[in-house]
Amino acid sequence: MDRITELLDASAPRRPVTAPAVSAALSDMVESSTRTPRFRRPLVIAGLSALFLGAGTAAAAAAGLLFPILPPSLLDTGDPYDFEWTATITVSDEEYACSGGFALIAVPEWENFNQATFDEARRFIQTQDWSEIEPDAALVLPPGLLLGNNHQGAAEYLSRTIKTQVITATQAEFDRRGTPIGGFSLKGIDECTL
Amino acid sequence: MHSVDASAQDAIRRHQSALLAYFTYRVVNVEDAADLCSETALVAWRRRRTMPTPDDEAKRWLYGVARNILLNHRRAARRRSKLVDVLRTELKRADTIAVAESTDGAQHEVRAALESLPAPQSELLKLIHWDGLTIADAAAVLGLNASTVRSRYAVAKAAVEAKLSASAQLS
């Protein structure tokens, strides 16, 4: 081995990735990241009555999509999402891995707020099978947002339409039941990576 | 667990330490490597169906994901789990000890020579000498063909040698 090769090999900063505490923390983090199911749903789903489980959700459970573990977001942040998704969205031949999630937040000050309806709406969102929902370009307003050079932004707008459809379907279901949901806002993230 | 899931999980676990090292070599604050490594694991897991199965190809694929994440590294607020916070804390603590113990002047000089090169040359040398990748691995990560990388590597190495010789003559 020549001298320059030796010097270059030896020049790596002595950074502490092999320290036992670092290795343990790294393993915990990777373990948590790689058990994320496609749709993270809370463990309590398993304990709910069949009344709340759509047929599609039961099929998803049978297919192993509902993991018998608490998702990391519930364990780690204390701020669970009612619904999370991942989607691969291609914009102008660029493939983006997108993820998003949101929680329904109660706004009791609203005139029509009803805690029982709100709780049921959250449960509805958590337990329905939304796997058929796909990003829908028709829901991006204005449509010109998809035509620019900001492909990542376009992918994020498209990903967000999943949330739009879940909320719209939930509101329609509760309107149909005669118990419209009043007094909620949304909190969450949407992110796409090339 | 599906075989795709199991093989992706194995690959990520196998290379997790190397990927963390990759980031620690390239960030100013060592604890930021925790966020980047977490993001790499999440993106790799999300896209696991496109991860190649042979280990050497999976390794290149993972480094490719890591490189993209590093290039897109933004200091925007990110949602950080407690597990990432623990890793940040441990990295910072261990790094403080490592830096205090590091007294090798020759290493600092070589590092300074590396950093003075144009970024693509410096990155190529780091991939090979710090991360332990082969020419073929580095070529895959950088999206170049191996013969191009081989010749660029020779040029970059000669440039470091010239800088070290010049500084030896000056001192």
Describe the structure.
- The complex is a heterodimer of chains A (194) and B (171).
- Chain A has helices at residues 3-10, 20-33, 55-62, 72-77, 115-127, 151-177; strands spanning 83-91, 94-106, 184-193.
- Chain A has 194 residues and is of the alpha+beta class.
- Chain A has a three-stranded antiparallel sheet with strand order 1-2-3.
- In chain A, a hairpin with a 2-residue loop joins strand 1 and strand 2.
- By secondary structure, chain B is mainly alpha-helical.
- In chain B, helix 1 (3-24) packs antiparallel against helix 2 (32-46), helix 1 crosses helix 3 (55-71) and helix 2 (32-46) packs across helix 4 (82-101).
- Chain B is flat and about 55 Å long.
- The model of chain B has no long low-confidence stretch (mean pLDDT 84).
- At the A-B interface, helix 1, helix 2 and helix 4 of A face helix 1, helix 2, helix 4, helix 5 and helix 6 of B.
Protein topology:
The complex is a heterodimer of chains A (194) and B (171).
Chain A: H1 3-10, H2 20-33, H3 55-62, H4 72-77, E1 83-91, E2 94-106, H5 115-127, H6 151-177, E3 184-193
Antiparallel strand pairs in A: 1-2, 2-3
Helix pairs in contact in A: 5-6
Chain B: H1 3-24, H2 32-46, H3 55-71, H4 82-101, H5 105-116, H6 119-129, H7 135-142, H8 146-170
Helix pairs in contact in B: 1-2, 1-3, 2-3, 2-4, 3-7, 6-8, 7-8
From the structure above, extract its key features.
heterodimer, A: 194 residues, alpha+beta, 6 helices, B: 171 residues, mainly alpha, 8 helices, 76% helix
Short description:
The complex is a heterodimer of chains A (about 190) and B (about 170). Chain A is of the alpha+beta class and about 190 residues long.
Could you give the count of β-strands of chain A?
Answer: 3
Q: Characterize the largest beta sheet of chain A: strand count, sense, and whether it forms a barrel.
A: 3 strands, antiparallel
- The computed structural class of chain B is mainly alpha
Strand content of chain A: 15-25%
